[in-house]
Amino acid sequence: MSNPSKVERLGTEKVGKLLWEMSSQTTFALLVYAIYSITDTYFLSVGINSLAAAGASIISPVLIALGGVATTVGAGGASIVSRALGEKNSEKASRTIANTFLIFWITAILISILGTLFIKPIVYLLGATDSIAPYAITYGRIIFLGAISSTGYSTIVRADGNVRYSTIMWIVPVTTNIFLSWLFIMVLQMGVSGAALATVTGQMVSASMSVYFFFFKKNRSYNIKALYFRPNFKIISEVILIGFPSLIKSISTSLFVIITNNLLRVIGGDTALGVFAIVSRLYWGLNTPQTGMVQGMQPIVGYNYGQQKYERVRKTINSSMKFSIIYGLLICVICLLIPETLISLLSKELMIIAEGKTALRLFSLACPLVGGAVMVAAYFQSVGRAKEAMMITLGGIFLIKLPVLFFASRFFSLMGIWSAEAVSELFLFIISLLMLRHDHRKFSRL
Fold first, then answer.
1. Span 317-324, average pLDDT
2. Which residues contact residue 9 at a Cβ distance below 8 angstroms, ignoring those fewer than 6 apart?
């Protein structure tokens, strides 16, 4: 008997082994990106000053929004591709990929034009002070100009079972980015322009690797013809519908960061914005393995759901959730014990370290919880149930996170802002588990 293909293994290999294989590689790739994100902040903070780091952080909602567009077509496309491959429908998979490229290119060009034209009002809307705005404008203009290259479609590559290539698509561009950030900022003294140019160059490398995989790689699962780029509105609507929770999540996250920056500008000024730039990078960087687990489980869930192997679906999500909680507890303990050491890796300014250690400790209380809602939303998204995924992502931001943030900042000032993440993630965690439990009961009846 011949060995199963990479795609078929998603439905036959032991779930634990498969999860480790898929998630370890995606996690490694994301860790490389997290290292870049943290070192980039270090280069800006130490190589220039904390205002430069804050300026790049002010633009982060733009990067989140661009990533949201890429994730929308990537997650929506990957869900369709996973199920199409499970159903042995390679033509549908190929048409889907072509249409995801079309959606992203059109959207990215529009974002690039509008962002470049209105960069100055945008940075003040994002929460910049007069001291931070010049850094944010310089950084943001270059980021907008490079918007067309801001995706590599690694999610769809994983849907084909090519986890190794998906991992390489992260490692090579990010390594390029890190090296260029060091060269442009620390050696050539190009300031925030250097940081932005390094980011865009890394994106271009990733986009080029994506084009190679889908159109030129030998023994690929797809045969994407020119006529497949003709808009297929049924596929486009399904891609957007399934991926829409990811877009909403990214836009909502961007909005949340914008509101947080504006509250920090009013309550704490430049120092508070500098602290948030550093602590938020540490927080999300340390939580990277949880994101890797989510990305690793999605193709397994989507493929097995397409083949109606519901017990494998349930085992995959349960195992992923256990890992997320255990890992989050470990990170929480580390942040509680040595916050000054972690922050001093990114800043040498005593005021930033003093205020940042309290912020990091309060943020870290969310670490055991933060993966829960994300995993449940990703599960619903992978099986094509956009409504439930949207309830978690959209409801989580607008019905839980923002109300908690406004209340906490109103009555507890800066301490409330630093605490809001953990409080809101606790509510989201409980709601998500209840939804998952209800769905597992439904599986038992199938």
1. 84
2. 18, 161
